[in-house]
Design goal:
One of its GO terms (biological process) is regulation of cell shape. The chain is 36% helix and 30% strand. The protein is α+β, with helices and mostly antiparallel strands and 321 residues long.
């Protein structure tokens, strides 16, 4: 049987998304629009590809990005990055072998010869490490998962006492909420730039958030709410949604949100909404037990405070010798 390799730009959006949706392990990270949206990030370029059979049907896809950077300020380098892992029809070993062979071929072209694979939220769909099964060296990280099927009463009982206090504080302070739409893009992006400036990091391109607000929200693949106090926006949270799972995708806030407890209240309100929609799981993100950055460790502690359980997250850094 003959197969061909085609870049994502050569595949129709409908064919790509239909294949992804039919796979039991797929998530938002595998969708055509997300891949195109992530390529709006600075220094990113397309490397995603599909395997096509002789009937011109997709039998496998591999979301992949080339990220360029300068080493020692002069030498141009790049590496390959993936989120979500790969998808193969019926997880067929022949298709998987073809996908990984092409992946390694592309890796061999990169000067840095390093690639990252992160199954992220899709890890929930696997009972065994898919990287290990393919002979790829890996390490198992942890993600904090809220089981929304338990119901809001049980979820509330599992939330930390300090988080509950902040939620009640926000209620007393009169924090209100608004469901975000494409009209709120500029407000959200201003908060994003504020957060990045405070943290001395470069903001993402506005085009990335245009994808979220103009495509993901209308297609029910993003759920964004904004918290207001005395008529002014103080924070916003974006949950990505796909099938019966959600993920804490992006979030922004001003300093006043911390004093008001607005972030805690906003998440709690959105968690209740996800439950009412029938979403089964919420991925709050990767957990680090002792991160070297106090700020990152603080974010981890915030996420864990909502009472999630730790589940495996399959990751690998591949180095081409």
């Amino acid at each position: 049987m003959n197969f061909s390799i085609v870049n994502i730009q050569e595949v129709s959006k409908q064919d790509w998304d239909s294949f992804a949706y039919a796979h039991p392990s797929s998530f938002l990270w595998h969708t055509y629009d997300f891949i195109m949206g992530k390529n709006k990030w600075s220094s990113h370029s397309h490397e995603s590809f599909a395997v096509i059979d002789e009937d011109e049907k997709i039998v496998g896809i591999f979301p992949l990005y080339k990220i360029s950077f300068k080493k020692y300020r002069f030498f141009q380098r790049s590496y390959l990055d993936n989120i979500g892992g790969w998808l193969c029809q019926r997880d067929d070993p022949v298709y998987t072998s073809i996908l990984l062979k092409e992946y390694r071929r592309r890796l061999s072209k990169e000067k840095q010869k390093v690639a990252c694979i992160n199954f992220a939220t899709s890890s929930l769909c696997y009972t065994e490490d898919p990287l290990f099964l393919q002979g790829i060296s890996s390490h198992t990280a942890r993600i904090s998962i809220l089981d929304l099927s338990l119901g809001t009463n049980v979820i509330w009982s599992n939330i930390r006492k300090g988080h509950k206090s902040d939620i009640k504080k926000a209620q007393r302070c009169g924090v209100t909420f608004k469901r975000a739409s494409s009209k709120d893009l500029d407000v959200y992006y201003e908060m994003h730039k504020h957060v990045c400036k405070k943290s001395s990091i470069l903001p993402h391109n506005k085009q990335y958030f245009e994808y979220i607000f103009n495509s993901a929200i209308p297609n029910n693949q993003a759920f964004v709410e904004m918290a207001y106090h005395e008529g002014y926006p103080v924070s916003a949270v974006n949950y990505g949604i796909y099938k019966d799972k959600a993920v804490y995708w992006t979030g922004v806030s001003y300093e006043s949100a911390y004093k008001l407890g607005a972030n805690h209240f906003l998440h709690w309100k959105m968690i209740q909404e996800l439950h009412s929609r029938g979403i089964a799981y919420l991925d709050m993100g990767e957990v680090f037990f002792k991160h070297s950055s106090p700020k990152i460790q603080g974010i981890v502690n915030f996420k864990q405070g909502f009472g999630g359980v730790l589940r495996p997250c399959f990751k690998s850094i591949v180095e081409k010798k």
